[in-house]
Request: fold
Amino acid sequence: MIINADELDARASYKLLIGAVTPRAIGWVSTRSTSGVANLAPISFFTVVSRKPPMVSLTIQPRSDGRTLKDTLVNIRDTGEFATNLVTLPHAHEMHRSAVEFDSDLDEFEEVGLVKEACEVVRAPRLKDAPIALECTLDRIMPVGDVHDHVVWGRVVRFHIRDDLYTGNGRIDTGAIPTVGRLAAEYTLADNAFVTPLAADVLRARAGRRMIRIDERPDGWSPVDSADWSPSGATKA
Reply:
């Protein structure tokens, strides 16, 4: 199957992108409005930009109406600050619920039952129980495309790393973290690791195998086919 991207609308293109680029890291982004309301939302167009200074990138779509800017973007634009919190399995459902398009005057931490922790430099809060959080200041915002998407670059000014995860040689013990990533409209748990080359019998044993579902849904099911899915990254449930 070869698909001409020029013939796709934003919805169709988004469905192919999120299925083709997997797994994606999730930046669970916490911000604070100019009036002091905390916001928390998952962004799965999230990655690293630079080492020195350390910088991360967020790509933020508008709300499901295709026009209104999400609170996350508005707050970053207006305050110049945000934090990203690592999503792990114990918080997967709260992360999913925080993708609901709440009214701007509602605090997502309170709505989904999570506890805030003050950051050291930025005024935006971070998630108290997140094993890793990054305090960021705004470097730039770049509008992209013709559907009101925006790319945000943030400079990391503080790393918050749980003590037991920070090893003696200055690295993070990733094997101890049940990190949750994004597939298309589903999530995946990072619960294995390897370096290459793998033994031939290991490769043969895994050839053609599908992912193992841990949610008791039928194999092949996807939220993309449900009424709750939105090409804005928001959810209704």
About this structure: Helices lie at 10-20, 71-79, 92-97, 108-112, 200-206. Residues 99 and 111 are 11 Å apart (CA to CA).
